[in-house]
Amino acid sequence: xxxxxxxxxxxxxxxxxxxxxxxxxxxxxxxxxxxxxxxxxxxxxxxxxxxxxxxxxxxxxxxxxxxxxxxxxxxxxxxxxxxxxxxxxxxxxxxxxxxxxxxxxxxxxxxxxxxxxxxxxxxxxxxxxxxxxxxxxxxxxxxxxxxxxxxxxxxxxxxxxxxxxxxxxxxxxxxxxxxxxxxxxxxxxxxxxxxxxxxxxxxxxxxxxxxxxxxxxxxxxxxxxxxxxxxxxxxxxxxxxxxxxxxxxxxxxxxxxxxxxxxxxxxxxxxxxxxxxxxxxxxxxxxxxxxxxxxxxxxxxxxxxxxxxxxxxxxxxxxxxxxxxxxxxxxxxxxxxxxxxxxxxxxxxxxxxxxxxxxxxxxxxxxxxxxxxxxxxxxxxxxxxxxxxxxxxxxxxxxxxxxxxxxxxxxxxxxxxxxxxxxxxxxxxxxxxxxxxxxxxxxxxxxxxxxxxx
Length: 454
Fold this sequence. Notes:
Helix content is 41%, strand content 11%. By secondary structure, the chain is α/β, with parallel strands linked by helices. The protein has two domains: 26-171 and 345-408, 3-Layer(aba) Sandwich (D-Maltodextrin-Binding Protein, domain 2), CATH 3.40.190; 175-344 and 414-451, Periplasmic binding protein-like II (D-Maltodextrin-Binding Protein, domain 2, 3-Layer(aba) Sandwich), CATH 3.40.190. The strands form three sheets. Strands 1, 2, 3, 6, 10 and 11 form a six-stranded mixed β-sheet that branches. Helix 20 runs antiparallel to helix 21 (442-451). The protein starts with a helix and ends with a helix.
C-alpha cells in the first residue's frame, strides 16, 4: 500500500483487505494430510505435519506465565491445543495481573516458569541483566522470526547482542475510537490530517460538546495511556529517527523535541474545552480507569477516545464494533508530512527460563507461522507475522490492525516506554504523566524522568 493510499484507507477505515493470502491458516506445510508427530506423540485427527520437527514429547510438561487473565486466557490456551495433541506435551498456563512484580520474585526464589510472555522489552532486558536467568532463543525460533516478521522484532527481543525474546502478540495504538452514527448524524467527517483533527475538535466545542475523553488509571500501571499520547506525537513531530534516539537515551528525556511533543499533547488533554467528556475536568483523567474512559462515546457525552486496538474488548456485550456499528476507530493522523504515516504499536515477547527440549520446542512453536495463524483464529489477537492472512482475524479492528502492521510502507515503532529501562519507562514516565495531567509543568516532568535514567 503506498503512503498516499495508506493515509486515505487508515483514516477512512476501509476494511476491504487487499493483502494476498500467503499461508493457509491452520493447514500443514508440505507434508501429507495424514502425517502426525513421530513416536507416541498423539496426533488424533489433527494434521500434525507442522509438529514433526518437535518430535515426541509425550510425558513432558511446560509451564507458561503471562499477564493474560480471564476471559482472554481461554482463547490463548485453546491455541496451545494442537501443540499438545501433536507432540504429547502438556502446557500448564497461569495468568496474573501482578505479573511484572511477581516474575522477578519467582526468578529470585528459584522457581521461574519455563516460559514467560513478557509485555515490555525493557523488562526482558532487566531480567537478562539483573538475574542472568533467561535462556537465549533457539536458532530455529530466530529463523522463524527472520523469515516472517519485520527485522525490528529481532531487535526488540535482543539484549546486549543475544537474542532472547520471540514475538508473541502485537497491537496498534494509533487509533481514535468514535461513534460512526453520531458522526454521521452531526455531519462530521473522519479527519485525515492533524489540522483536520483539531478543526473537528473545535467544531464539536462550537456545537456544545466535549470532543475528547481520556483516562490514565490502571492500578499499579497508572499513567501508561498518557505515555502513548506522547509517543504518538513524538513520531509525528520529531520523526522515527529522533524517536529511536529518545528511547535509547541518545538524546536526553528533557530534549526540546520531547518538550514540544508534551506541549502538543497538552493542547488536547490539558484543554478544559476539549476534555473530559462525561467524566469530569482535566484532572479527572488521572483517576479515570482507562477501561472506562471511552465509554461516554456510547451515550454521546464524548466524541473521541485515543486507545489501542485491544480496547475493543472494553465496549461490552451488545455493542457492535464495526465501521457501520455502534463504535469503530480511525487512524490518528500525522502532523508533519515529512514523517509520513507513523504507527505506534506494542506487543509481547516469549522468553524461556529452561533449556529442556520441550521448552525449546514450545518457544519455537510460538514463533512459527503455524501458531500465529492458529492464534489469529482464536479471540482478540493481532500478530506482527506477515504471513497470517488478513481474513484469519474475526474482528474488523483486528483486520485493520493487521493490515496496517503488514504494510511495508508503514513507519512502525514499538511503544517507547516499554523499550526504556523499567525504572524509567514503567515507573518515572508513568508517574510523570499523572503529575503532568494534574498540574505539573512539562519541564518539571521531563526533568524528573531524565533524572531517573540509570
